[in-house]
């Protein structure tokens, strides 16, 4: 049997349990620890040149709590807090946090939801296509993901899953209208907690001016942390 035929057989015979396990693995590559502190950088690259960048810290606790703190000179001290389905922007010197949505821009084509929110195994159901793809010379299974909540920011996602390692290699996100919104190409993996974690990705906007370039997300440091629940409240986040 040829390799292509073998891959098609894997796709055709994948059970719901297989698909769920693969999605859990993709989530684990983005969220290695239940509580974590992450140092990251986003860079906007247009026509091959870095136009702007932002450094930030991400504190994550469990499934639904995350706090992003900007550390670059332009935005130093700004925070984005996520609790469940609610998200706020906290600006130094202001009294009240501002409600925002997961689609709010972090930088370029990257949104806050890209950094802190997505959990594919919980939020999507998967179907394997009976065709395969290639990403950077790697054979990939192609999974069509559909959000359990039809009002999700990206109700449909196409996942290119490395057939050999079961790692995400590319993700394509679609809007409610069916238009392709963005593509995330996974360009780097490292190790944490004994398994692979994403260290770098390139997000390309498929709508508007940003399609000329991409946003590079780099996860520079990723470590377990014991985090107080109090920092995941607007008042607690202000004091951090």
Structure in words:
The strands form two sheets. The chain has a 13-stranded antiparallel β-sheet with strand order 6-5-4-3-2-1-15-14-13-12-11-10-9. It contains five helices and 15 strands. The protein is an alpha+beta fold. 16% of the residues lie in helices and 50% in strands. The protein has a single domain, classed as Clam (outer membrane lipoprotein receptor (LolB), chain A), CATH 2.50.20.10.
Features of this protein?
240 residues; outer membrane lipoprotein receptor (LolB), chain A; 5 helices; alpha+beta; two-stranded antiparallel ribbon; 16% helix; 15 strands; 13-stranded antiparallel β-sheet
The major beta sheet can be summarized as:
13 strands, antiparallel
Proportion of helical residues: 10-25%
CATH class division: Mainly Beta
Rg for CA atoms: 18 Å
What is the overall silhouette?
A: globular
First-last Cα distance: 58 Å
Please report which band the strand proportion falls in: under 5%, 5-15%, 15-25%, 25-35%, 35-45% or over 45%: over 45%
Strand order of the largest sheet: 6-5-4-3-2-1-15-14-13-12-11-10-9
Question: What is the tally of beta strands?
Answer: 15
N-to-C SSE series? HHEEEEEEEEHHEEEEEEEH
Structural class: alpha+beta
- Return the average pLDDT rounded to an integer: 85
CATH architecture: Clam
Task: Produce a short descriptive summary.
With 240 residues, the chain is of the alpha+beta class. The chain is built from five helices and 15 strands.
Task: Itemize the secondary structure elements and their pairings.
Elements: H1 3-13, H2 16-28, E1 35-46, E2 49-61, E3 65-70, E4 79-83, E5 86-90, E6 98-100, E7 105-107, E8 110-111, H3 112-116, H4 120-123, E9 124-135, E10 138-147, E11 156-162, E12 168-174, E13 180-192, E14 195-205, E15 213-224, H5 234-238
Antiparallel strand pairs: 1-2, 1-15, 2-3, 3-4, 4-5, 5-6, 7-8, 9-10, 10-11, 11-12, 12-13, 13-14, 14-15
């Amino acid at each position: 049997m040829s390799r292509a035929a073998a891959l098609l057989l894997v796709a055709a015979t994948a059970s719901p349990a297989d698909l769920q396990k693969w999605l859990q693995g993709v989530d684990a590559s983005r969220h290695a620890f239940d509580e974590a502190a992450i140092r990251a950088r986003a860079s906007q690259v247009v026509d091959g040149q870095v136009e702007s960048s932002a450094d930030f810290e991400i504190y994550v606790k469990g499934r639904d709590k995350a706090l992003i703190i900007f550390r670059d000179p332009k935005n130093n001290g700004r925070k984005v807090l996520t609790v469940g389905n609610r998200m706020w922007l906290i600006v130094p010197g202001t009294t009240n946090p501002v409600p925002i949505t997961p689609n709010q821009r972090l930088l370029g084509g990257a949104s806050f939801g890209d950094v802190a929110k997505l959990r594919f195994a919980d939020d999507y159901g998967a179907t394997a296509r009976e065709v395969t793809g290639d990403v950077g010379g790697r054979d990939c299974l192609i999974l069509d993901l559909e959000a359990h909540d039809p009002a999700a920011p990206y109700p449909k996602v196409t996942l290119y899953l490395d057939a050999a390692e079961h790692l995400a290699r590319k993700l394509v996100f679609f809007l409610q209208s069916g238009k392709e919104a963005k593509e995330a190409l996974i360009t780097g993996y490292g190790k944490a907690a004994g398994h692979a974690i994403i260290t770098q990705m390139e997000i390309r906007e498929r709508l508007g001016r940003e399609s000329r370039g991409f946003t590079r997300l780099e996860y520079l440091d990723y470590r377990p942390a014991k985090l107080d629940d109090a920092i995941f409240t607007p008042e607690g986040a202000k004091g951090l």
